[in-house]
Amino acid sequence: MFSRKALSRGAQLAARQQGCSKLAQRRGYAAAAASSSAPSSFTYDTSDVAGVKVAARDSHGPTTKLAVVAKAGTRYQPAPGLTVGLEEFAFKNTEKRSALRITREAELLGGQLTAYHTREALVLEARFLRDDIPYFIELLAEVITQTRYTTHEFLEDVDRVIHLKQGKFAGDVSALALDAAHTVAFHKGLGASLYPTPSVNYKSYTNEHSIADYAATVYAKSNIALVGDGASTNALSRWTEQFFKNVPTSSKGSATLNTEATTYYGGEQRIAHSGGNSVIIAFPGSSFGTFTPEIAVLVALLGGQPNVKWSPGFTLLSKANAATPGAISTASNLAYSDAGLLAIQIKGAAARSVGSHAKEAVQALKSIAEGAVSKEDLTKAIAKAKFDALEASQSGVSALLNAGSGIIHSGKPFQVVETVKSIDGVTADKLKTTAKSLIDGKASVAAVGDLYMLPYAAELGLKILNPISEPTQASVKMAFAWKAAGLTYNRYLAVASRVVRRCLKEEQRILAERRGESDLRFAKWSNGKMGEPKNLADANAAAASEAASSGSSS
């Protein structure tokens, strides 16, 4: 290889031009490949196999991800604890296999089995090598149709794990704040808690029998979808038809799912907590059913996480994080089938810093509503929104979940290609209008932590449905019983003192009987004196012997 000094200036220029042309050519190939391969690599092929809705996307890799997505999230459960209880029963004893056998077989094949739930879905997921797809399809079908909901497993495993998750959830101020924001935003349905709160006695609703009935209701062909990533459509359809034929066509259980349409309300909730501080500022967001590209760009512009670790980045919240340490602010859009929640999440150890971040977040949103966004920042936000959408659909937990939820609710999976095209059409005026509608509308605010320092929604300049009013001390009118009985006050004191003395004597007598002793005085006189106090047991024994002797003598 020749050194740079050995080349003439002309040769150097020629080599430089050749390198630039090759780089431009590679960029052109990359752009063409991206535009041509995006639909095939991000689009799911859907089909109906034996009544089961199936979606497959073949990435031609060595591993496969397979998931059964059921319409059984906390939004639909008729009683608290059923969804998490059904989740904990997954991959335990079935009619054919024990939990130990399932675990050992999965480990021998190098597979991973997980179960989790969201507000709308319950997901049973398996990750494995591509050639092992028949076994894991059979296992998933067996889990949803032949799981044994036994009493000992509920008492020893399921109930114990629910208690642990309850405690973990109750100690996480960020999770509590987000849960409270959903409650004030949607009330029931999507507003239901992800886990039963400690104040709710879920055992009065949830046991092995109610969970089995809930499983019979949600594990039906009309209520589930099978999604495969890294599997061919032919292989997935072939084994699904063989092993999912025993899944009921319709619900067999007696439980009634909560299927009411979601309504956004807004409001404020404050929870005292000693484990940290968190504030959630939320607005109506973008849903899967009606995707709003302006919301995606708005979330990308607010951001919170820098793209490069040594720079705060261009997003408004990341600049606030760098300027005010002690708290972290991030923005995200929580999308559901018929509703969405644009949430700004703020957490930190210092309540004063969390409150300052909350005010800065509202000011950042107001600046967008006023049109104070440069053209360069808008271009960056659009590019970031497109990247976030493509990355979420390419890999991760949300890929299978979003595809399965889309099939269950709308009959087709969420297609990211259409989303990216709509994001390109966002302009500065559209973004300004969207931000202004959020500021002028009803917000959902939740604060968890030191309530003395954390701000109210009114202090942040936000509008809510029902502002929290400070409780005022009302005048109390006492109704005295002795007046109603027609007694004088002196007569009332005399009666009350007599009752108190009688109660005290009665209490002493009861305590003495518990010790086996009592001040027993005989009614008759003996030698001119009243009987001395004696032990109750001894007096009874003496009386019994005296009665026996007098009876024998007579």
TrEMBL record:
Top-level taxon in the UniProt lineage: Eukaryota
Localization per Swiss-Prot or TrEMBL: Mitochondrion inner membrane
Signal peptide residues on this chain, from the entry's feature table: none
Topology in membrane: Peripheral membrane protein
Domain Peptidase M16 N-terminal: 54-194
Primary residence: mitochondrion
Keywords: Electron transport, Membrane, Mitochondrion, Mitochondrion inner membrane, Respiratory chain, Transit peptide, Transport
Family assignment from sequence similarity: Belongs to the eukaryotic ATPase epsilon family.
This protein's name: Cytochrome b-c1 complex subunit 2, mitochondrial
Protein species of origin: Monosporascus cannonballus
